[in-house]
């Protein structure tokens, strides 16, 4: 449920509206293609997890197969991913809340600050409460999507008009076909679609705190493919068939748009509450995962020592507080440019996602090479098609980066910021290198003494 819930968030509930307006029905194609590669990434991570379960997830595997430098880059880029995603989530919460007139006079930054405070408090209490909340968040999101799809299918079967349009293929293709604005808009929205699938790798992070990963992991990962395909691709196809693509906007959830056009205001309000829950869930997942990743990095010396602090309830509160402090920048962004805050951070989050997925595939490729050399044994649950699967996925992720450059707006600015990010990572590495070496020497000495004691 955490894997499914992590993948169903603001990228679908809010972002799909603007992307439908830009790319039209071809958005379903973009979701399907990106969904296949997202599944390959999580399948690769699943094999690594069964090789050696760890709550440090792919950062732990980057350390094993790429060394401390690889783990440093993987960990901090993942934190960049979730910190910026967290900013997008609190922005989405503020946007959703303004749907109700009673909150229309409340500044966007105030709502964002309250949302952040609530989720931080939940994460700091205990991992059990996080798990319970995330389970029910996922239930609400999945249940709402199922209900919406049931309503949409009913409208299709009965040909009941929606805002004067009779649902069906004619609505989807009657205003310019599958590519109403050409193929380029569909390619340009792929970066946002990749963002929509962010969080799917959460299944690897949670495996370290799962009692029986060998049994649970394959079942969870295999279910992701058809469920995400159904919820993402299926709901986008339904949206395109219920209303013309130009009826949707980036400022409102497409699900709310459809339900409000049906003339049932209460239904639209309920759906808006659901999508608000989705944004809170995504923020909840982000703080959970970065807290564990930063603790893993702190234990190796590549993150500040305080991020390794663990509470009596086994919560890595240091890492959670660091991530939430970065999310506070999003509160400021909502104060300065409330109308642009979501799109600004969306692109930076996409960079973090691309680096995270690339690291997972590179780690698996190196793992596969070791297995071929007989140095490690692959588990029974494997990524099919190795090594071609990893190479094709890496080429696809590189293509997404090129498409971001082709976007003359925020996408190109984000790609231009990559050299700055690289310089910061290099400076950061030289800043922690001595501490990393000291931790490594201490661990090596401890292992040597343990061996001597056993002898």
Would you mind describing this structure in some detail?
It is a single chain. The protein is 76% helix and 0% strand. It is an all-alpha fold. It has a single domain, classed as Up-down Bundle (Amino acid/polyamine transporter I), CATH 1.20.1740. The model has no long low-confidence stretch (mean pLDDT 83).
Offer a few descriptive terms.
single chain; Amino acid/polyamine transporter I; about 450 residues; mainly alpha
In short:
By secondary structure, the chain is mostly helical.
Order of helices and strands: HHHHHHHHHHHHHHHHHHH
Here the CATH topology equals Amino acid/polyamine transporter I
The description of the largest β-sheet is: none
* Content of β-strand: under 5%
In the predicted model, the low-confidence regions spanning at least 5 consecutive residues are none
C-alpha Rg, in Å?
22 Å
CATH superfamily: Amino acid/polyamine transporter I
Structural class call reads mainly alpha
Approximately how much helix is present in the residues?
over 70%
Count of DSSP H/I helices:
19
In angstroms, what separates the terminal alpha carbons?
Answer: 46 Å
Number of domains: 1
Quickly give the CATH architecture. Answer: Up-down Bundle
Query: What general outline do the C-alpha atoms trace?
Result: globular
Estimate the mean pLDDT confidence.
83
Number of DSSP E strands: 0
> What is the CATH class?
Mainly Alpha
């Amino acid at each position: 449920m955490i894997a499914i819930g992590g993948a169903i968030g603001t990228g679908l509930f809010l972002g799909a509206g603007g992307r439908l307006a830009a790319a039209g029905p071809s958005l379903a194609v973009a979701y399907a293609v990106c969904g296949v590669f997202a599944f390959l990434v999580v399948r690769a991570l699943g094999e690594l997890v069964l090789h050696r379960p760890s709550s440090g997830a792919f950062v732990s595997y980057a350390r094993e197969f790429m060394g401390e430098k690889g783990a440093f880059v993987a960990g901090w880029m993942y934190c960049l991913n979730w910190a910026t995603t967290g900013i997008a989530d609190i922005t989405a919460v503020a946007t959703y809340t303004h749907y109700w007139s009673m909150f229309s006079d409340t500044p966007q930054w105030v709502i964002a600050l309250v949302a952040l405070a609530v989720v931080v408090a939940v994460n700091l209490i205990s991992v059990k409460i996080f798990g319970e909340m995330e389970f029910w968040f996922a239930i609400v999101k999945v249940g709402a999507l199922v209900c919406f799809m049931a309503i949409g299918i009913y409208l299709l079967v009965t040909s009941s008009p929606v805002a004067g349009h009779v649902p069906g293929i004619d609505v989807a293709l009657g205003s310019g076909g599958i590519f109403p604005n050409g193929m380029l808009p569909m390619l340009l929205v792929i970066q946002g679609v990749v963002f929509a699938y962010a969080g799917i790798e959460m299944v690897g992070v949670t495996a370290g705190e799962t009692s029986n990963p060998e049994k649970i992991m394959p079942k969870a990962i295999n279910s992701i493919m058809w469920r995400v395909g159904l919820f993402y691709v299926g709901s986008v196809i339904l949206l395109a068939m219920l209303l013309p693509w130009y009826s949707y906007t980036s400022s409102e959830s497409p699900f709310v748009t459809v339900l409000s056009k049906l003339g049932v205001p209460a239904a639209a309000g309920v759906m808006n509450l659901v999508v608000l829950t989705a944004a809170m869930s995504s923020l909840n997942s982000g703080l959970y995962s970065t807290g564990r990743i930063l603790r893993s990095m702190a234990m190796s010396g590549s993150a500040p020592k305080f991020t390794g602090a663990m509470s009596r309830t086994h919560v890595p509160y240091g890492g959670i507080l660091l991530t939430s402090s970065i999310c506070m920048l999003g509160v400021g962004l909502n104060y300065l440019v409330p109308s642009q805050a979501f799109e600004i951070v969306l692109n930076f989050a996409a960079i973090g996602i691309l680096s995270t997925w690339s690291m997972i595939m590179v780690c698996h490729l190196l793992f596969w090479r070791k297995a071929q050399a007989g140095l490690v044994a692959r588990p029974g649950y494997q990524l099919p098609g190795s090594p071609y699967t990893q190479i094709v996925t890496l080429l696809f992720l590189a293509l997404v980066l090129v498409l971001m450059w082709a976007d003359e707006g925020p996408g190109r600015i984000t790609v231009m910021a990559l050299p700055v990010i690289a310089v910061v990572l290099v400076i950061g590495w030289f800043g922690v290198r001595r501490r990393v070496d000291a931790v490594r020497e201490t661990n090596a000495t401890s292992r040597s003494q343990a061996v001597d004691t056993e002898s």
